[in-house]
Amino acid sequence: MENSTLKPMDSEQLREYGHQMVDFIADYYKTIESFPVRSQVKPGYLRELLPDSAPKHPESLQDVLNDVRQKIIPGVTHWQSPDYFAYYPSNSSTAGFLGEMLSAGFNIVGFSWVTSPAATELEVIVLDWLAKMLKLPNEFLSSGQGGGVIQGTASEAILVVLLAARDKVLRKVGRNSLEKLVVYASDQTHAALQKACQIAGIYPENFRVLKADSNTNYALIPDKLQEAIMNDFSSGLIPFFLCATVGTTSSAAVDPLSELGKIAKANDMWFHVDAAYAGSACICPEYRHHIDGIEEATSFGMNAHKWFLTNFDCSVLWDQNALIQSLSTNPEYLKNKASQENNVVDFKDWQIPLGRRFRSLKLWMVLRLYGLENLQSYIRNHIKLAEQFKELVCSDHRFEVVAPRTFSLVCFRLIPREGDQDNGYNLNYNLLDAVNSSGKIFISHTVLSGKFVLRFAVGAPLTEESHVKAAWKVLQDQATILLTDQ
Amino acid sequence: MENSTLKPMDSEQLREYGHQMVDFIADYYKTIESFPVRSQVKPGYLRELLPDSAPKHPESLQDVLNDVRQKIIPGVTHWQSPDYFAYYPSNSSTAGFLGEMLSAGFNIVGFSWVTSPAATELEVIVLDWLAKMLKLPNEFLSSGQGGGVIQGTASEAILVVLLAARDKVLRKVGRNSLEKLVVYASDQTHAALQKACQIAGIYPENFRVLKADSNTNYALIPDKLQEAIMNDFSSGLIPFFLCATVGTTSSAAVDPLSELGKIAKANDMWFHVDAAYAGSACICPEYRHHIDGIEEATSFGMNAHKWFLTNFDCSVLWDQNALIQSLSTNPEYLKNKASQENNVVDFKDWQIPLGRRFRSLKLWMVLRLYGLENLQSYIRNHIKLAEQFKELVCSDHRFEVVAPRTFSLVCFRLIPREGDQDNGYNLNYNLLDAVNSSGKIFISHTVLSGKFVLRFAVGAPLTEESHVKAAWKVLQDQATILLTDQ
């Protein structure tokens, strides 16, 4: 009896429950503006609302959905809210969502070609499409030596290229030279690089963090790089990896790829370009120049899950070299004719994990259901809204813009009074806390040249001009309260 | 004009298209038995069917779904087919699917608690539930020093614990002792460990692969481990990491945790237990003994996405120590009050990537919509079916069972004729190729003690007794053809 009761994949139950879930999610989007953008719960809130152990007997979908409504949603920070301006966006879209559904429906594990040829081949094809939209050099296409691969996140993309670079140089100079390997990047580079260095065993004292400041709008200075490399060579160290960023996390700064790439090439270093956020903008001809020089890069990454309507996670990495020399395994139980005959790609050898989802489906659906021109308009609209926000900031003498608005991010702050002890740190920290605690908008912060700076990143799919204007009013009103209280 | 056309997240379009996709997927499951289980396409098939570049203008969902039907599905290997018996299962279920939908709907990025407190807190709670179902020691609960965390795959779980172990010992003995660190495991351990060693920079010659054979049913022999450790100590090396497996990839062998754990403890080594596949069975009291000794482990992992109805990916890792000393980063732009006050978990510091999906939703839905008793029956039913298959094999004198059936995997082969030059390699390779090329079933293989062995892993959610019987008939019929042709 008990052996026959559970039918966990009954097509008609899937249909019935699936329809209920679609309505639940559509209703969520319909009412998304009614929730506090940043969750306002206190740490530990959920423990008090849920039982201590799993149920013995099945519960109904209705009960679960009620709990989602009453217990989970209050603890959700609504990244898809049109009033979300924190960090960088993490786009959801109907097309991306449908792709996630289909991928979860097939639920294949595409580690080798044979485990679902369509998963591997669609990924290769769609990444060629995207490479062409970005006008990447031919070396990054699958017809060249390398090709594209979908990683989970930019952190993983940076890690796999760092490992490939590490192993390439160690094969030449010997394993025990690990302590001599030097990595270069600006102090604006994402913390993922530091973490990757830690994982790869790069000595912390050999991670050269080059200072970038407002003189170059927080871009890495080629002369500084050149100097550091020369110093390291003369100390007997081995410079081997340079990471540049197009659209840094703090201020969307753009490192000068051409000049940096030439230095890397002259010194036989791996040159990785991380365009996690801003890469998407480069499908517009007027922004493509930000990746001029990309032909000097060894590898290039962008996150389609940030500002490109593809649901998280979908981080795209192209490289001119194969990663497989560092990441391959070939155990007996995974051998198969197609792989042995060497005429297929096995993506397990291009990434850290063995298993992988069918993520190309969602990117394919985004590209097909929206098309290039719509995607370009989408990007342009956000950049236009960011420019409008910047103008609003400029029009209020209490505020200042702290870094150039290059894409859809505005860095700004309340100007501290003369003689302010902490250069406006508390003032702006309090403004940040006040607006985020209001639940009306969610923004984030950074520190630039010692200044505590507010970050306003436009990029949620539902954000329109009215939301940007309303956000500015929230900021102005809270500023007025704070300045009056001072 | 162009700026206002695209509404990529319109709730009513999401609703309409979402319903269409639910029907598409439900229909897929309804007809899943009509497809060849292992895709029969040739390498490069999809390139000929799709255009060379992304469309400029939007296409219709109907066109995309037609392409999925006509171009993608032929290239899918149907892991959810009831006739799928290859590798180990990758379960999809209605509950797991709904969890994926909801996670894609919220599309949050839960790197820090504040980015969606519910995502972090539900994960902590649900992994406590699962730990209790498995009767794990209290040290693995969130009330202890460690707790559980969802990783993408067992490969990532093994990598993060290896890194934590590496950095812990290097903090004691100094970074330049990396070359002395030694890792131990049996030759039946998953290739993920070798890859993790490569990534972590463990010297290949310091990866002790201890031979296991049929005398112990392919389990690691404690005496061999003890001996290897002593040898390494006397050579001035530093034994620091032991990986045991409960349910190996090739034959579902179980390493003796208690004895191994005592050796690891006596030598101050990190002891990781990988129960990626078989861990799920340990929710049944009669199988729990396979992880007796788990209280000696430093960390323990199982894949809920394999045999536990939770759609890929969902690999659960518990540890008694925090991983955060190896994996933490704390850049300014991610700082926030809750994290600074140190009273919340930030899962970004327990994993390789920064970003993470809301994966606990699907595990929560599986546990609630099915309940403990149903989940136990589900496991028991597969084990019963595997036992039935084993009996069928035993009843045909042409075949032999090659390793004990401990869970739901049967390792078997056609017995080679006396004097067979390659000990039945070609005979069984050809049988494998014949049944998989028939499209009727999909099985995989391994090599045990030099024998080419067929693996029949029961575990797909739709598999019933009739499918197992039909699969056996396919194998018998193909065997008859092969043996007649010889």
Automatic annotation (TrEMBL), chains A, B:
Cofactor(s) needed: pyridoxal 5'-phosphate
Gene Ontology CC terms, in alphabetical order: cytoplasm
Pfam families: Pyridoxal_deC
A Gene Ontology molecular function term of the record: carboxy-lyase activity
A single BP term in Gene Ontology: phenol-containing compound biosynthetic process
Alphabetic keyword roster: Decarboxylase, Lyase, Pyridoxal phosphate
Protein's name according to its UniProt entry: Tyrosine decarboxylase 2 isoform X2
Residue numbers of N6-(pyridoxal phosphate)lysine PTMs: K306
UniProt organism field: Dioscorea cayennensis subsp. rotundata (White Guinea yam)
Keyword Transmembrane helix: no
Family of this protein: Belongs to the group II decarboxylase family.
